[in-house]
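Hi team,

As requested, here is the filled-out complex form for the FE2/S2 (inorganic) cluster run. I kept the field names the same as last time so the parser does not choke. Let me know if anything looks off before we queue the next batch.

— J.
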Amino acid sequence: MSAGETVSIAADTPRLEAVLQRYRRVPASLISVLEDLNEEFRYLPRPVLEHVSMALNVPLNQIYHVATFYKVFNLAPQGKHTICVCEGTACHVKGAGAIMEKLQEQLRVSEGGTTEDGQFTLRSVRCLGCCALAPAVMVDHDVHGELQLDETARLLSRYADRPDDA
Ligand code: FES
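And here is what came back:
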């Protein structure tokens, strides 16, 4: 799925069914199904949740309860890349706040927001578990430790769309 693209339930039904098929015989598989769909679509659109509700015979309000309870699930479209700025104590002391401000300025989004081009979602997290590398920022699954303020632009350019990224 390309950046900024939304889900069309008709066009995306095969992807949705592939995930459901994976858990067809697994009891109490709702969370696993939602995890895989969240990974597949980068968020959980309402039509997808309605489809899951029918397929698993679970009331839609129960699905929303689970989807809103766990922070890992997204109910709004997410950027192609997720930037998590650690604002735990060690990172805070070493300037995480300034890094967050700089990224907000460069991306023109608030914390929790997604850039207009759908490239980046910017979040803060409590601790990435690598305090010795403070201040730390995670982009997708990559941790960037001891990040300096003047390195944020270069960091963004490493992840911004490249021709072979489509
Ligand atoms: S406080 Fe930032 S990695 Fe622990």
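Two things worth flagging: The chain has a mean pLDDT of 90. The helical segments are 9-22, 30-41, 46-56, 60-69, 89-93, 96-107, 152-159.

Thanks,
J.
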